[in-house]
Amino acid sequence: MRTITLGIVWVFLCPSVDAMSLKGQNVDQQEEKAEVREETLPKRVKRGWMWNQFSVMEEYTGTDYQYIGRLQSDKDPDNGSVKYVLSGEGAGTIFVIDESKGFLHATLRLDREEKAFYKLKATVVNKQTGLQLEPETEFIIKLQDMNDNEPQFSQEVYTASIPERSDVGTPVIQVTATDADDSMYGIGAKLVYSISRGHPYFSVDPTTGVIRTALGPKDMDRETKEHYQVVIEAKDMAGQRGGLTGTTVVNISLTDVNDNPPVFTQSVYQLSVPESAMFGTVVGSVQATDRDIGRNAEMSFSITSGDSMGIFDISTDKNTQNGVITVKKPLDYEKKSSYTIEIQVRNSQKDHVFMLRDSKDMATVQIRVEDVDEPPLFSKAHYLMEVKEDAPISTAVGSVSATDPDQVRRVITYSIDRRTDMDHVFSIHPGNGSVFLLKHLDREQKAWHNFSVIAKEFRHPHQSSHTLVYVRLLDINDNAPTFATDYETFVCERTKVGQLIQTIRAVDADAPSAGHSFYFSLAPDEANTSNFTIRDNADNTAGILTRRSSYSRFQQSVHLVPVVITDGDYPIQSSTSTLTVRVCACDHKGNMELCNVEAMSDSPGIITGALVSVLLCLLILLIVVIFFTTLKRRRKQEPLIDSKEDVRDNVVSYNDEGGGEEDTQAFDIGALYHPAPALEESVKQRRDIIPYDTLLYPSNLNNEDVWEFINQKVLENDCNPTGPPYDSLATYAYEGCGSVVESLSSLGSALSETEQEYHYLHEWGPRFRKLADMYGAADNDFS
């Protein structure tokens, strides 16, 4: 019989004290009372607390409430006057208590893995007064574990790898499983690992879960089997019967090591290449295989022997790992039509642990050279020829030579690419390749001539090749030396004999092989009479020296010294150059102070420039004068009307007032009354206008003579070919008839001394509004 008692002991200074005893019983067991001994003590001792845990089985499946135990107090007279009160975790829901008897039950099915224990509190109160008879005390209800959880691995699937050819017992990976059951209670949570799939390659440690290799290096070969799936079991209850089991899957892969050498797929390879293949042309490829992968399968090819050492080359294609054979040197079918080479292949990454010997493979490659129709081949890559610059036309400069490299040996013809010799300086013989001159040469103008020669097969002109020809012109002494520059110096009026006043140098367009040698001297006719002398320095320079101690710039301000310069080559060339020496006034140190104007401008170059400038200025001045004269003549035209005063009417002035009707000498007034005879004397009509026989003015009987006079004058002007073309002649002398405003002329206004009134202009309508505003405003302003 199992009894769990929660006891509270009180000790007083009394003869005897009953202690409260709390007892618990199981459902199938009877109650048992605990006896408390009474001891008489000489003094009062503070009460102590003592209590035990209650326990209950998890996963209870019965239909009734599960009995846990009983709480009992010595304050309970067992007559129903007290009440047991329960509080804490799950009180009233999970756990209930009989208020009168103190029996404790669990109402629900409990799971230790969810909650392992519960903390509760209990007390005793009087039902009638509600007073607490015992202080509240705490106790624990612990759930007893049962094996109801299977082991669980941390991962459903594990992934691991190990190098191939590993030794026996090499660790691969560790798997771990856990059990939710109580490891402190029994063996329900004690796990044991085992392997259910993966024999005989792997094993597992039953305690730690470490997976290891179970076979040797020869059996763990990636090239034979690369992937393995291993199933590991974890069983609780130390692996005994009745325990629960959990499983997991471990995928194990073998990683590659370089344990296999490369091998050629063929022992003999046959390739072909045309003889025209250039450097780097691919001849073909050879293939080798390696059972390894990745970097362990990288291969390196090389040529070890054969009759084509240096003719071909082999390299590795990084993408396909094939050996690529290429042309390294030019091929010639006529010289050698086939080649045989030995090649080898080996791993680029060597692993001496697994490959103890230098693993390699050998193969033979036979290369056949194919014949092609090749263009002519020149004997040289380029040709250098030399010819003297004075060589006559048709002189042979040199020759080029080309042959057909094919076995047929076709005839070759030569020509010059005229794009490189556009001046047609050279020609070439089409049969033998000899180069000739077509024009005269001058080295000083062009020292080198370069052109291209084309060689073609006679019956196959599309087969052609080019070569460059460089022609160097050899110099002959055909140019005389001259001054290096236009020398001009001065000499002081007071000097001394033998004074150096200028050092001169010479240049020559020729280029002798031994270098230039110049000789300087005075002209023969000046050798004895010249005021200066020359000293040859023997280094292609000369010095000009004075022969006198004094010179006068007033007597002769400029001296011209002719210098003869002769070269030392054959045939000898010489020239005479003139040195200009000005006579100037100098200070005591020989520095020039003053020279004559004539001397300063006596140089031929200066005179020529000055004359050109003067003539240019005169020409510009003459053009300006002609331009303004022409413009003035065009503007100077006498107008038909001389506007000496501001006259509103167009009055023609003839500058001849006459003497009126009595003046019969100046003007015949009778012409106004008899205009007909005057009309008969009309001269030849003008061509620039169409004459009118009559004016289109209406006739006025009162002014008939005046009208005919004006008509005659207009006709005379229209028919006068010598008069100015003033076609816009207008006159207001004849107003016509029927005007409502009468005469508007101001010619008769001077006869009246009365002030003019212009208010009537406002009555003439809108056409005269502007005129009315002008004259009306004038009257108001001056009044």
From TrEMBL:
<dbReference type="GO" id="GO:0005509">
    <property type="term" value="F:calcium ion binding"/>
</dbReference>
<keyword id="KW-0325">Glycoprotein</keyword>
<dbReference type="InterPro" id="IPR002126">
    <property type="entry name" value="Cadherin-like_dom"/>
</dbReference>
<keyword id="KW-0106">Calcium</keyword>
<protein>
    <recommendedName>
        <fullName>Cadherin-12</fullName>
    </recommendedName>
</protein>
<dbReference type="InterPro" id="IPR000233">
    <property type="entry name" value="Cadherin_Y-type_LIR"/>
</dbReference>
<dbReference type="GO" id="GO:0007156">
    <property type="term" value="P:homophilic cell adhesion via plasma membrane adhesion molecules"/>
</dbReference>
<feature type="domain" description="Cadherin">
    <location>
        <begin position="73"/>
        <end position="153"/>
    </location>
</feature>
<keyword id="KW-1003">Cell membrane</keyword>
<dbReference type="GO" id="GO:0002009">
    <property type="term" value="P:morphogenesis of an epithelium"/>
</dbReference>
<keyword id="KW-0472">Membrane</keyword>
<dbReference type="GO" id="GO:0016339">
    <property type="term" value="P:calcium-dependent cell-cell adhesion via plasma membrane cell adhesion molecules"/>
</dbReference>
<keyword id="KW-0812">Transmembrane</keyword>
<feature type="transmembrane region" description="Helical">
    <location>
        <begin position="605"/>
        <end position="628"/>
    </location>
</feature>
<dbReference type="GO" id="GO:0099560">
    <property type="term" value="P:synaptic membrane adhesion"/>
</dbReference>
<dbReference type="GO" id="GO:0007043">
    <property type="term" value="P:cell-cell junction assembly"/>
</dbReference>
<keyword id="KW-0965">Cell junction</keyword>
<keyword id="KW-0130">Cell adhesion</keyword>
<feature type="domain" description="Cadherin">
    <location>
        <begin position="154"/>
        <end position="264"/>
    </location>
</feature>
<dbReference type="GO" id="GO:0016342">
    <property type="term" value="C:catenin complex"/>
</dbReference>
<dbReference type="GO" id="GO:0008013">
    <property type="term" value="F:beta-catenin binding"/>
</dbReference>
<dbReference type="GO" id="GO:0045296">
    <property type="term" value="F:cadherin binding"/>
</dbReference>
<dbReference type="GO" id="GO:0005912">
    <property type="term" value="C:adherens junction"/>
</dbReference>
<keyword id="KW-1133">Transmembrane helix</keyword>
<keyword id="KW-0732">Signal</keyword>
<dbReference type="Pfam" id="PF01049">
    <property type="entry name" value="CADH_Y-type_LIR"/>
</dbReference>
<dbReference type="GO" id="GO:0034332">
    <property type="term" value="P:adherens junction organization"/>
</dbReference>
<feature type="domain" description="Cadherin">
    <location>
        <begin position="265"/>
        <end position="378"/>
    </location>
</feature>
<dbReference type="GO" id="GO:0044331">
    <property type="term" value="P:cell-cell adhesion mediated by cadherin"/>
</dbReference>
<feature type="domain" description="Cadherin">
    <location>
        <begin position="379"/>
        <end position="483"/>
    </location>
</feature>
<dbReference type="InterPro" id="IPR015919">
    <property type="entry name" value="Cadherin-like_sf"/>
</dbReference>
<feature type="signal peptide">
    <location>
        <begin position="1"/>
        <end position="19"/>
    </location>
</feature>
<dbReference type="InterPro" id="IPR027397">
    <property type="entry name" value="Catenin-bd_sf"/>
</dbReference>
<feature type="domain" description="Cadherin">
    <location>
        <begin position="483"/>
        <end position="606"/>
    </location>
</feature>
<dbReference type="InterPro" id="IPR039808">
    <property type="entry name" value="Cadherin"/>
</dbReference>
<dbReference type="InterPro" id="IPR020894">
    <property type="entry name" value="Cadherin_CS"/>
</dbReference>
<keyword id="KW-0677">Repeat</keyword>
<dbReference type="GO" id="GO:0000902">
    <property type="term" value="P:cell morphogenesis"/>
</dbReference>
<keyword id="KW-0479">Metal-binding</keyword>
<dbReference type="GO" id="GO:0016477">
    <property type="term" value="P:cell migration"/>
</dbReference>
<dbReference type="Pfam" id="PF00028">
    <property type="entry name" value="Cadherin"/>
</dbReference>
<comment type="function">
    <text>Cadherins are calcium-dependent cell adhesion proteins.</text>
</comment>
